TrEMBL record:
Keywords: Membrane, Transmembrane, Transmembrane helix. It comes from the Eukaryota. This is Uncharacterized protein. It is found in: Membrane. It is a multi-pass membrane protein. Belongs to the TMEM19 family. The chain crosses the membrane at residues 6-23, 90-108, 174-197, 209-233, 267-286. Its main location: membrane. The keyword Ribosomal protein does not apply. The keyword Membrane applies. It comes from Erythranthe guttata (Yellow monkey flower). GO terms for cellular component: membrane.
Length: 287
């Protein structure tokens, strides 16, 4: 019984420390810190690799969010110091992954597995979905946070016409490369730890390396889906008073693109869901 409690206890201690630090550093507001603590605890308690993937996403995204804050403040109408995220953003960026993590726990407990459809197609599908969730979120965040700092002229993904920085659906070459890099980091983390935590045959273990290019594609795919949704279902307009691109129409706002159907959280949720499903099927087919 004591052994069964060790991992959840470690998970709670690590999560509490990270949540408290993130609140002090303004990466999370109070509601974000509480929800972040719960999400982190679940991931780490179920499987250390799941926890590592979540933490790599959180720390790298928070780090890049803080890059070039002075420049971003001049462009981003919703700029917050430190990129402070609330509970809604935490849930939208990790809710699907958390559900999948809990599902894996009900199926296999905390035992670690290699991706191998011949041994368990369900676990391979579920774990592929978890990877897809965080490849999408990490890729999209890296793309947004680093792309906006690029000197490249953003182009609307649906028309390829030049648009102002901060326009939903605007993409740059630097942003697309960053999205693939953000996804690949998730894959590298999961695969590298797997060599230590799993006990698979040499051929199956070697095959896990294919997850890295899959993760890079998932990060890129998630970012592209996010941009397509942002360009079509999310409103972008230029406010002549604030001199910034904004997400809501108004008397001083000239429309650039999109419809007021989804907000940023809605776009994130749909892109995560689609990328999760696509990555699950890709892993099931390849592994």
């Amino acid at each position: 019984m004591e052994n069964n409690l060790v991992q959840p206890l470690i998970a709670a201690i690590i999560s509490a420390a990270i949540a408290a630090r993130s609140y002090r550093k303004k990466s999370l507001d109070f509601s974000g810190a509480i929800s972040g603590f719960a999400v982190m605890t679940i991931h780490i308690a179920v499987n250390y690799r799941f926890g590592a993937v979540l933490l790599v996403f959180f720390f790298t995204s928070s780090m890049f969010t803080k890059f070039g804050e002075d420049k971003k403040q001049k462009v981003d109408a919703d700029f917050k110091e430190g990129g402070q995220r609330n509970w809604i953003q935490v849930i939208y960026n990790s809710g699907i992954g958390t559900i999948l993590v809990l599902t894996v726990w009900t199926v296999a407990g905390s035992e670690d597995y290699c991706l191998n459809s011949k041994e368990s197609s369900l676990l391979t599908f579920l774990i592929g979905g978890i990877i897809g969730q965080y490849c999408c979120c990490n890729g999209d965040t890296w793309s947004s946070e680093l792309g906006i700092l690029s000197d490249d002229q953003p182009r609307l993904i649906t028309t390829f016409k030049p648009v102002r920085k901060g326009t939903n659906g605007g993409v740059t070459k630097a942003g697309l490369v960053a999205a693939a890099a953000g996804g690949s980091v998730i894959g590298v983390t999961f695969v590298a730890l797997g060599f230590v935590t799993t006990n698979c045959s040499s051929d199956i273990a070697l095959k896990q390396l294919l997850l890295i290019p899959i993760s890079a594609l998932s990060g890129l795919c998630g970012s592209v889906i996010d941009s397509l949704l942002g360009a079509t279902l999310q409103y972008s307009g230029f406010c002549s008073v604030r001199n910034k691109v904004v997400g809501k129409p108004g008397p001083t706002v000239k429309r650039i693109s999109g419809l007021s159907i989804l907000d940023n959280n809605g776009v994130n949720l749909v892109s995560v869901l689609l990328t999760t499903v696509l990555t699950s099927f890709a892993c099931s087919y390849i592994f």
